[in-house]
Amino acid sequence: MKNEYIYKILTYSEFENLKGNDYFFGTEKDVKDGFIHFSKKEQLIGTLKKYFKNQRELILLKVSIIDLKNLKWEQSSDGQIFPHLYSKLNCKKIIENFKIIENKDGSFTLPSYC
After folding, report:
1. How far is Cα 90 from Cα 24, in angstroms, rounded to an integer?
2. Banded pLDDT at 2 (limits 50, 70, 90)
3. DSSP character for 28?
4. Rounded to two decimals, what is the model's pTM?
């Protein structure tokens, strides 16, 4: 895969819990599944529609994959290939974070520069 970045969607409260930590161990779902779920940029809207419908106050983390160990690209039930991290994430790999806007019609708007 030639992606330089992967993305993680968090609620505001999950993001607040992450702040000030050296490592991110994942959300409750990630811990249950045994890996941290990420998306490629072009998969974000689909991930938002499937898992975050009617949720507000979401944050998008942009994560560098350079030298990111234990990252595997795996096929999901719908045939897409998603990045999964089978270890904790060093927070130094988080390049930026963005607020995700939920529109009145329930759709989402991502910053064009993410």
Report:
1. 7
2. low
3. H
4. 0.92
